[in-house]
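Shift notes (night). Ran PLP-dependent transferase while the centrifuge was going.
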Amino acid sequence: MSGEKILHRKLQTQLEQRERQQRLMQPPAPGMVNQLIDFGSNDTLSISTSRALTKGFLKQLASHPNFVVGSTSTRIFEGTTHYLNDIERDLARFHEAEAGLFFNSGFDANVALWSTVPRPDDVVVHDEYIHASIHDGMRRGRAKTRSFAHNDLQDFQRVLEDLRNHHAGVKDGQSVVFVAVESFYSMDGDVVPIREMLHISRAVFPRGNVVYSMDEAHSNGLIGPDGSGLVCHYGLEKEIGIRVHTCGKGLGSTGAVVLASETIRISMINYARNIVFSTAPSFITVAAVRAGYELAASEEGEKRRRRLQENTRYFQHMVTQHEQWAAVRDKGVIRIPGAEDWGSTSFETPIFALITPPGEENELADHIRGNGYWVDAVHYPIVPKQLGRVRLTVHADNTKAQIEGVVGVFMEWAGARVKRAGRKARL
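Came back to this:
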């Protein structure tokens, strides 16, 4: 048997096992997705699907008629153009940071950051639910890592105190403790308790040898002045040393910027392999990002943020006021993390996890799609084992009728299971 056949057999065995476990990932046909009402994509402000971003992008092209499509080289050679320098300067100002470094994607940004900035004697403390790109970066880096239970302040404090008591460099203030969190967690839709975490770390480390890094992928464009994010919403620009803002969610395009000190920026340019050995972002990519930021900071952007909040709260209202919800929740047919706290903060996240009993997420997703609404089924390893779910995202351009419709559809599915369980209990 040839080497190629052996390889294919091994790969096919893996794929068949994943398919048996009902977690084989196959991208849906674009034609199918486009026929359904969008409750799945990350285009939360609807600026991409509405073509509002397209109009802004075309304006950028028209205002730079002599643009060159390709970037021609890496950042360390000819790839750093005036246009790229300008967007980094302007995004740093927009988010009230010292400096910015632009990347082709948020994944690239996190890998570069975590593989190069923490030193071997440092420690990275991270929420257990941080993005896969941060894990990949940490694996390539040389710092030690410690995790704490998701959004669990007591466990966070326990981990910090353990480091203070058992790590000499941390205790004497010579080693840095990096804290890696996300603003909005993409699979549960909850918010990092950042102010409480800052209070805890100040108490545990009075020397101040802590650097926070926040990934604002799902908050960029959605909250804060002109959509500048969670850190700016709380006025914590001076307390969060590193931020990663991606542009492929609320801003509708692609790419990302790391916001930090100029020293961190230059360090990544020198040591991050996906900067040194990768082609720089092209004019096309950066023009779309600038168009997205200009739209987010405009009156239309503010209207879209308000409408997204209204739609998100309306979705919550339709769920909690539904006649089936109490039974559905109590029987565990569908669980939505954070539902007990809806309405308790000044803003709501548009991401909702419909967690089903193990193995039923595909059936729920198929039922919702069969009724005209696109959602995504999510499985391990993207989420923890036994916590498969349907991920539903509300958008600025969803109508109240669409929100009522999608809630009615998944409540119909859940209600049927409640009734079925009741009949079995009576037998």
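The first helix runs from residue 3 to 20. The radius of gyration is 23 Å.
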